[in-house]
Amino acid sequence: MARNSKKKSLESQYRVLFYLGEGTFGTVKLALHLKTEALVAVKMVEISKKTLKVILVEREILATLNHPNIIRLFQVIVTPGCVNFILEYASGGNLFDLIQEHGPLQEEEAKHIFGQLVASVKYCHNLNIVHRDIKPQNVLLDEERNVKLTDFGLAIKCSPGRLLSRNCGTKRFWAPEILLGEPYDSRKTDVWSLGVLLFFITTGDYPFAGSTLIEFEQKLTTGSCRIPPYISVKLENLIHQILTVPPEKRPSIEDIEKHPWVMKCDI
Ligand code: ADP
Ligand code: MG
Q1: What is the pLDDT along the chain (267 residues), one digit of tens a residue?
Q2: How many CA atoms within 13 Å lie on the side-chain side of 167?
Q3: Ligand 2 centre and the CA of 47: distance in Å?
Q4: Ligand in nearest proximity to the CA of 135
Q5: Domains by residue range for the chain, with CATH
Q6: Cα first-last separation, the chain
Q7: Alpha carbons 120 and 104: distance in angstroms, whole number
């Protein structure tokens, strides 16, 4: 037993190097795979009542995904009290930190990143998987600034037409129908989050800001966002289309892919 657990333990296979980041559930560290000398990211999630479902969902869904713009899961190692996801390492960090450090992206670069992100979300939706936590912190970049969507802890398998009711994710990225507590089409709420993200990466700001929570909620439910004048006409049109309040009038991920501002990304 001891031999077997040693064989499977984290330290016997990896040298954990340094801290990469932290989210709601996990701490992520860089590690070296001793056998191949490849760098990987280890997402360590403590097992608790609160995290168990997230762990099981992330494990199951990541294992089914295989797309160049989605982070790859190599292995799962369970150590006492902790689950370690061994993931592809994205050396460019996350989009939130990038914008915080360097300011908003030029439209040409945003097009490249957004096009790849749309491709990854379309791939998920076609597999009946919705992410439900699309935000810049969950979009990573590799050394060539290719997108790697990550953090599938709140994802769910959802057939077309099925409505969900549990709100989850981050309020700033919620669609109005989630805020209003209505049953929601999770494909359309993923699309809304993409719109908030697109606004953020091209302006460095959020589309529905307010000095109070009530003001923010009013703006969100009426879809009143002001787009800065330096944004091109095509991009302005795309953002307005995505941030359409009635979900039935909001574009699908396929519609977004066809928009003239979006750089189609063929795999
Ligand atoms: P949580 O589920 O707790 O939100 P995430 O999976 O979103 O955890 O990871 C938290 C942060 O850790 C990310 O925002 C990112 O900065 C960093 N990170 C996560 N995975 C990787 C990875 N594969 N490569 C590089 N950094 C990562
Ligand atoms: Mg996260």
Answers
A1: 444 444 468 999 999 999 999 988 999 999 999 999 999 999 999 999 999 999 999 999 999 999 999 999 999 999 999 999 999 999 999 999 999 999 999 999 999 999 999 999 999 999 999 999 999 999 999 999 999 999 999 999 999 999 999 988 999 999 999 999 999 999 999 999 999 999 999 999 999 988 999 999 999 999 999 999 999 999 999 999 999 999 999 999 999 999 999 987 766
A2: 13
A3: 17
A4: 2
A5: 4-88 (3.30.200.20), 95-263 (1.10.510.10)
A6: 45
A7: 22
One-letter amino acid identity for 258? K
Beta carbons of 18 and 8 less than 8 angstroms apart: no
Residue to probe by mutation, ligand 1, list 57, 59, 86, 94, most atoms within 8 Å of CB: 94
Q: How far is CA 60 from the centre of its chain?
A: 17
Is 106 exposed, middle or buried (CB count within 10 Å of its CB: 0-12, 13-18, 19+)? Answer: exposed
Ligand 1 centroid to residue 30 C-alpha, Å: 11
**Residues that place a CB less than 5 A from ion ligand 2:** 23, 138, 151
Spacing, Cα 151 to ligand 1 middle (Å)? 7
176 vs 59, 125, 184, 196, 222, CA distance in Å?
30, 20, 10, 12, 8
Of 27, 28, 51, 76, best ligand 1 pocket probe by most atoms within 8 Å of the beta carbon: 28
Task: Identify which ligand lies nearest to the alpha carbon of 86.
Answer: 1
Q: Which amino acid is at 95?
A: L
